[in-house]
Amino acid sequence: MAPALRVSATAPASPAAEAIECDAVQRALATSARPARPSPMSASLTFWWRAMLKIRHIPERLFDVTMYTGLTLNRDIQKGVHDRFRSLPIWRPATPVTPVPGVVTAVGLLLVFCFSLSWAWTMLGIVMRSEQALMGLSMMVLFPLTFVSNVFVPPETLPGWLEAFVEVNPITILVAAMRGLMHGQAVGSEILAVLVISAGLVAVLGPLTMLVYRRTS
User: Fold this and answer.
1) Contact, 155 vs 163, CB < 8 A?
2) What is the DSSP letter of 31?
3) Is the CB of residue 94 less than 8 Å from the CB of residue 47?
4) For 25-70, how does the pLDDT look when each residue is reduced to its tens digit (9 = 90+)?
5) What is the 3-state secondary structure (H, E, C) of 94-116?
6) Are 151 and 176 a contacting pair, CB within 8 Å?
7) Model-level pTM greater than 0.70?
8) Cβ proximity of 126 and 191 under 8 Å
9) How many Å is the Cα radius of gyration of the chain?
């Protein structure tokens, strides 16, 4: 005959004992006062410095900063890093910012344009399923914008139908403004056009990116 199974019931803990255990856990987890919530500027600068450290180790990312913005965000989402950032008490949008004056201004103009264009890849980095898919789509967009411009050849040497596209290409306007600044030429209209394009990109893509960001969360 099989031996009878013994069933031992554990008496429920009293409320006083539960309170003591809860207090002990809280003391073990929090031995000091909780730090103050960082400001939006502080959180944004922290994530900016994180991106700069990556560029320091891989300098070529500086030449393709717009695409790598989306790739890095997509990789963080896939690996769970993004979820850990979201659990922190920080400003949420902090995660979806030479001595020659002409050169300094040209580089600043480039950074402004890159910042505005990076919103497109930030949004794609949230919605794309993998970084390989995002890389393929990015190449399809960046190659025409870069090569069908005045970066490598003067627009007047191109066929008429292609020259018309090159003249309105935002990269062409940006390059013309930067070259003019570096050579000390008057390029006020080109600079204004770049700033208007950048402001338009941020005004359109910024809210769309934040809307997609909130819906995915």
Assistant:
1) yes
2) S
3) yes
4) 776 666 667 777 777 777 777 776 766 666 555 554 555 555 555 6
5) HCCCCCCHHHHHHHHHHHHHHHH
6) no
7) no
8) no
9) 26
